[in-house]
Write a structure and sequence with these properties.
Elements: H1 9-19, H2 77-88, H3 97-112, E1 122-124, E2 127-129, H4 134-142, H5 144-150, H6 158-171, H7 178-190, H8 197-202, H9 208-223
Amino acid sequence: MSPECKHGYAERLAKRLRAMGSPRYQKGTKGTLQEDAADLPLPANRGTWRPFTHPRVGFIYLLARLPYGRPMIDDGRDRVLYLVFQGLKVKPSVSSFDDRKRMQKLVYIVQRAGLSLNFRYNWYLQGPYSPELSPYCYEIASRLPKYEGELKGARLNTQAEAVLQKVSTALGKCVTDTDVLEGVASMLYRGESRASAALRAEKPRVTGSAWQLAERCLRTLKES
């Protein structure tokens, strides 16, 4: 373990699991080959499409270093998500249902575009939804000045920023349109390049023009 990672989240968790008797953590944070798990297949549907990253690469590898030289891994995915929303030029907010829906759908689209954040999504009435993402959104939105201060000048790495640029270009002005985002995310989840009649019937609130914009955004995303 590098000095920069000492006393971080991974080390603390490894000590706790070792004390609990977990066989995988008897060497703490020292490199250990888990032979029984090395060849296990990944879950078939994790809601992530990863053309740029190895499927086992976790979110901490997406981060560049903070301006003062420490890797930003201690506080988890909340910091990554703040930088994701910053990169998309969307202010994190949970004040309304549409605000929360916007954050949910953007994170899903970003994951499917290649940025591995490891949030699991299920199908709900409004399309893909991740229960585990919700507390992160509330944390960021409720403590926004804290993140703005602590992460001033921080950036994701080049690969992650390229994915955000691709998503931003594909969505354009629709990056804040919750109906269009719902359409894009729903088609991605269902594996459709165009909205089927069945999908449209499930979402009567989404207008025909919103579906057209969603299809255009999805086509641009897949072609870029």
